[in-house]
């Protein structure tokens, strides 16, 4: 039976591209979570005024890739030590956050943050939050596979994240 997690690690195009490369991931949807505006638009979220983070909803087969592995991949492919930013993307919409959908996911999220902190001198600012999920507009879905590979920003940011994934989780990456 499939399981779903929601994480936010900066630009959702980047996080989506990472998880689309993981064996056992069945689907990845970009969207918005953790804010106060119902049905926010990309333009609204980009202002930082809605309180939403750009996130991804990852549906996966836990018999192929485990919840702790998913969270470790998340922590290992973005910079969870940067508060409200990832590289040149600055604002609360780019925060590092995990949005657990169950008590088990919350416990595993806490454990993943602790594992990352243990190997990085306790510097993660990743938060554990709740919120309502809103899918992003259609043109944001599967962005890397289409427009993203012609977008200079994506070409600069996504390949290094994919390299981190391949280096640290080689046995979990699609060929």
Characterise the protein shown here.
This protein is α+β, with helices and mostly antiparallel strands and 175 residues long. The protein has a single domain (3-172), classed as Peptide Methionine Sulfoxide Reductase, Chain A (2-Layer Sandwich). 34% of the residues lie in helices and 20% in strands. The strands form two sheets. A six-stranded mixed beta sheet has the order 7-6-1-3-2-8, with helices on one face. Strand 4 (85-86) and strand 5 form a beta hairpin. The protein starts with a strand and ends in a 7-residue tail after the last helix.
Mean pLDDT: 96
Radius of gyration: 15 Å
Instruction: Provide the helix percentage.
Output: 25-40%
Strand order of the largest sheet: 7-6-1-3-2-8
Q: Largest sheet at a glance?
A: 6 strands, mixed
Which consecutive residue ranges, at least 5 long each, have pLDDT under 50? none
Query: What would CATH call the architecture?
Result: 2-Layer Sandwich
CATH class: Alpha Beta
Q: Considering the protein shown, what is the CATH homologous superfamily?
A: Peptide methionine sulphoxide reductase MsrA
**Broad shape:** globular
Proportion of residues in β-strands: 15-25%
Find the structural class using helix and strand composition.
alpha+beta
Question: Main traits of this protein?
Answer:
six-stranded mixed sheet; 175 residues; 34% helix; alpha+beta; globular; two-stranded antiparallel ribbon; Peptide Methionine Sulfoxide Reductase, Chain A
């Amino acid at each position: 039976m499939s399981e779903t997690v929601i994480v936010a690690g900066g630009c959702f195009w980047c996080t989506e591209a990472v998880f689309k490369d993981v064996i056992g991931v069945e689907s990845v949807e970009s969207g918005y979570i953790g804010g106060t505006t119902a049905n926010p638009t990309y333009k609204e979220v980009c202002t930082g005024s809605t309180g939403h983070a750009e996130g991804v909803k990852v549906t996966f087969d836990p018999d192929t890739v485990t919840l702790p592995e998913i969270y470790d991949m998340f922590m290992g492919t973005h910079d969870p030590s940067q508060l409200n930013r990832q590289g040149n993307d600055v604002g609360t919409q780019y925060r590092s956050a995990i949005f657990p959908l169950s008590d088990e996911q919350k416990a595993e999220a806490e454990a993943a943050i602790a594992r990352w902190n243990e190997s990085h001198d306790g510097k993660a600012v990743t938060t554990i939050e709740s919120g309502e999920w809103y899918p992003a507009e259609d043109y944001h879905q599967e962005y890397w596979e289409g427009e993203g590979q012609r977008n200079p920003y994506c070409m600069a940011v996504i390949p290094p994240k994919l390299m981190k994934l391949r280096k640290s989780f080689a046995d979990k990456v699609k060929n």
